[in-house]
Write a structure and sequence with these properties.
Elements (H helix, E strand, L loop, with lengths): L60 E7 L3 E2 L6 E8 L6 E9 L5 E10 L2 E7 L12 E10 L5 E10 L2
Parallel strand pairs: 2-8
Antiparallel strand pairs: 1-3, 3-6, 4-5, 4-7, 7-8
Length: about 160
């Protein structure tokens, strides 16, 4: 079962090699889950079909999302958000940083960055929601989502507190 207190995340296709998973103790909605006491990894193999598809390139990776201020005061400060992005050489990814409110589980702000190559992605958030209002006090997830040219998705989260 993937119902609370359990959480399942399907990673989709993964290329051969070492798999590294980053988890900020949040569920698929970005909500902090202090009730989770263990993490289990499972894999399965199925028979390779007769007609296979070989694609050039590699899976996009988003790692180490970080913020300049773990406790942030919108209106008097700005928040720098960084994440490490890896894409196949010569390719780019569509990156979106979402600010998710833990109380409502809603996306307060979505910050898109098109055509990002490998390296550190950097953007600044002024603490305002999409409607222009300052973010309410509380706990937030900062989620970096990168989508590669084949539709593969990578996600990296970090928690942040808004206080006034």
């Amino acid at each position: 079962s993937c119902d609370p207190p359990f959480f399942c995340q399907y990673l989709g296709y993964q290329p051969s090699g070492t798999l590294e998973l980053e988890w900020a103790e949040t569920d698929g909605n970005g909500a902090y889950r202090p009730d989770m006491k263990a993490v289990l990894f499972a894999s399965y193999r199925t028979a390779f079909p007769r007609n296979g598809i070989a694609m050039a390139g590699g899976a996009v990776k988003a790692r180490r999302t970080r913020v300049s201020r773990p406790v942030f005061s919108p209106g008097s400060q700005t928040q720098e958000i960084r994440a490490d992005l890896t894409v196949y050489p010569g390719e780019t990814a569509e990156v979106t940083v979402e600010i998710i409110n833990h109380e409502t589980l809603g996306v307060v702000k979505s910050l898109p960055l098109a055509g990002q190559a490998s390296g550190t992605v950097l953007l600044t958030w002024d603490g305002r929601s999409s409607s222009g209002l300052l973010a309410a006090p509380g706990t937030y997830t900062v989620r970096t989502r990168a989508v590669g040219r084949f539709g593969e998705t990578a996600v990296s989260d970090i928690l942040m507190q808004v206080e006034y």
